[in-house]
Amino acid sequence: MLLIHDIVEVDAGDHPLHVSGGSSRQAELESQAAERLFGLLPAEQKGEMLALWREFEAGESDDAKFAKALDRFQPLVANVITGGGTWVENNVSLDQVRARYGPTIRLGAPELWSLCEQWVAKAFSRPHDA
C-alpha cells in the first residue's frame, strides 16, 4: 500500500507536509497519476492497484491507518536525525510538528507516536544551527 502510494507521488510530485495550501490540487494530480499509471496495467491489476491506492487515500481501514502512520513517520525520523532538517528550513514549530504528524501516527500506531513524541521533544530542546 505504501509503495503504491509512493509510486503515484513520484509521478505527481510530493506535497511536503509543512508547506501549506495546494492540497486539493495535489489530490487531483495524484488521482490523475494513479489512473494513468495503473491504466498501463491489465484491467485486473489496474483494479487491484487503484483499489489499494484508494484505500490508502481514504485512510479508513486498519491497514490504511497503519500505512499512513508509517508514511508520516518517515519524514519525522528524517528531520529528527538531521537535527531538524526541513523543519528548521521552514521554521516549523514543535506545536506544528505535533499537530501535523501526531494525529495520523497516533491513529495508526499509538505506541509509535509515544516514541515519536519523545524524539520530537528532544529534537526541539536542542539548539539548531542558524
Helix content: over 70%
Total of domains: 2
User: How far apart are the first and last residues' alpha carbons, in Å?
Assistant: 38 Å
**Rg, nearest Å:** 16 Å
Which structural traits does this protein have?
130 residues, mainly alpha, 2 domains, elongated
Précis, in short:
76% of the residues lie in helices and 0% in strands. The chain has seven helices and no strands.
Could you describe the 3D structure shown?
The chain has 130 residues and is an all-alpha fold. The protein folds into 2 domains: 1-58; 61-130, no CATH class. Helix content is 76%, strand content 0%. It has helices spanning 2-12, 23-38, 43-58, 62-81, 85-89, 94-108, 110-125. α3 packs across α4 (62-81) and α4 packs antiparallel against α6 (94-108). The chain is elongated and about 55 Å long. The mean pLDDT is 93.
What layout of secondary structure does this protein have?
Layout: H1 2-12, H2 23-38, H3 43-58, H4 62-81, H5 85-89, H6 94-108, H7 110-125
Helix pairs in contact: 1-2, 3-4, 4-6, 4-7, 6-7
